[in-house]
What we know:
Blueprint: H1 2-17, E1 27-29, E2 36-38, H2 39-44, H3 60-67, E3 73-75, H4 94-103, E4 111-118, E5 121-128, H5 139-155, E6 159-165, H6 173-177, H7 179-192, E7 197-205, H8 207-210, E8 219-222, H9 233-240, H10 251-256, E9 262-263, H11 269-284
Parallel strand pairs: 5-6, 6-7, 7-8, 8-9
Antiparallel strand pairs: 1-2, 3-4, 4-5
Helix pairs in contact: 5-7
Amino acid sequence: MNWLTNFVRPKIQSIIGQKSETPDNLWHKCKGCGQLLYVNDIEKNQSICPNCDHHERIGPTERFKHLFDEGKYSLVELPKANEDPLKFKDQKKYTERLKAARSKSEYEDAIAVALGKMGNVETVIAVQNFLFMGGSMGIGVGNGIIAAAEQALEKKAPLILFTAAGGARMQEGILSLMQMPRCTVAVQKLKDAGIPYIVVLTDPTTGGVTASYAMLGDIQIAEPNALICFAGPRVIKDTIREELPEGFQRSEYLLEHGMIDMIVHRRDMKNKLSQLIGLLMKKAA
Length: 285
């Protein structure tokens, strides 16, 4: 018994207690079909499921890498916003929520802006980041869009905005809603100067973002099956107490009803945008 208890059992327990050296982030479960996908494979495929073609949500860095020529670009420095103008607190302080979001992101807020060449045309691209507090629109996002518009005006370069947002940022209250007219004015300045403004609606684009600058593009593009709305389908269904049409508020439904101009697959996005800005810049000239 001494041999079993003093040697064999401790040896087995030490083996069981050892942590696996295999990383736990090698696999990704597709939100469309539920299939387990090898992370490297889906990243090489621009975060598109090879099985069901579902477009996963991606952040600014991935967008910039796939859109700019040779993946080369420079980030535009964005003005810093007052981080907690209302001293807001719900279950947590707003400052704590910001700190937690920034610890998981390489950006200071839910937007990033970059300048580079796309199709050999100098272009400003702004990308909202849904992974940062649901891409919510606060003062920081408003500042980012205005900075992108100002950069486009200065460089006489087209502005392409990729939207992804759950709406206004509740922790900033009325100050968040004020970003809607601020950004609308910035977009109007581009239009007055004859500078192209293209919007690419990605999943999800909702709330005050949809009600303002997201629907003001010279051309409205959407990724496949993206949710695009003001109030979500669940809210509408609970309000009117009726079944909604299949695919309601998805890209394909909006295209059929004339709210957007086209749906473009992510793999084709760079070529299509390059073609469009080439045509629009010739027209502007």
